[in-house]
Amino acid sequence: MNEKRSAVTFLNVLVLICILVSHLCLEVDGVLGQPKKMVSKLEKFWTTSQPHAVRDLGVNATHVVNLEMCRSRWKLMEKWANYSGAQIQRWRATSFAGVDLKTPPIPLVNVPKHKRVTSGQVACSATHLKIWRHAWKHGYKRVLVLEDDVVLTNSIMDNLAQYLSELDEFTSQSGKQWHWITLRKVTLQSTLGEKIFLTFKDGRSIYTSAQFWGSAAYVLSREGIAWLLSHLTYYQHPLDVQISEFQRTRPDFIVLSLCKSGSNFERHCPENTISFTREMKEECSGSASQAGSTKFGTSIPSLWRHRSNKANGVSVVY
Asked: How far apart are CA 242 and CA 254, in angstroms?
């Protein structure tokens, strides 16, 4: 009898702790000591709201980068897709565990001597390169790439295809090409200096982007795919830092931003993207790009220029 009372008391205390610790915890299983998985408000909204019809985003494919060990994130992305009408394809990311810095999938060249390289950073760049090669090989006109902890807002999903269509028309008339459109960024410069590239029919503008970090949500044109495959032929910096370096040193690399600009800019562009909470990321809440073995720039070859682009399968030369 005392044992039963102790068990009931323990269960009551557990429920009380659950309520106090987090409003996200919904209930406790009948089995003692086995709390149910916490369900975020966002996940609950996706699974209980009326789903949208399939949406055309104006791209040939939407690839979601996802590590094999982070299947819970992919399941959440599927729930978002089922609700939002997004047609997504899982792209299995190269794992840091599968990258040996002695024989990396991308040559390590000209890494600043004071910087360190992790196998996770190299794996990240290798993953995106594979997506670009796939897109080029299959003749994609445009591809949308998302990391597996970022989703798009309804607002940008409702308008992206129209914006891309208007960009096509503008490019056809003006001859001005673009390569990369960021939907999410952490800016490294003031956005007050960003210039309007095009104002759309609904009044929203797309800008020539200030330098930024962030590769969690972006669109590439076919010209952008070709440009990157012919220029990013070795690893020198983490991917988003490399894109920023291209912005700084290569005026022929045209990077646009669909984020708000000037004094209206907000970090990570919440008008376009929503981030998973730490609880939603579960077993993969850490940064995979910082994981794995490490090597410093002092031990990496320094070459003036690395010209090989044959592996990327494009005819454009550096």
From this structure: 14
| Residue 262 to residue 187: CA distance in whole angstroms | 11
Closest CA to 225 of 150, 157, 128: 128
Extract the runs of DSSP E, i.e. beta strands, from the chain: 61-66, 89-92, 116-118, 142-147, 150-152, 180-182, 186-187, 195-199, 205-208, 212-213, 217-221, 255-257, 273-275, 294-296
- Its pTM stands at 0.82
Cα separation, 167 vs 290, whole angstroms? 36
CA distance 107 to 104: 6
- DSSP secondary structure, 150-169, as one string: EEE-HHHHHHHHHHHHHHHH
**Based on C-alpha coordinates, what's the Rg of the chain?**
22
**How many angstroms separate the Cα of 216 from the Cα of each of 37, 114, 150?**
26, 26, 7
* Count of CA atoms in the C-beta half-sphere (13 A) of 102: 0
The amino acid present at 11, given as its one-letter code, is L
- pLDDT tens for 165-212 read 999 999 999 999 999 999 999 999 999 999 999 999 999 999 999 999
CA distances for 211 relative to 91, 174, 246, 257, 296, angstroms: 27, 24, 9, 10, 25
Q: Per-residue pLDDT tens for 4-42?
A: 455 445 545 444 444 344 433 333 333 334 444 557 888
Closest C-alpha to 219, from 265, 260, 165, 173: 165
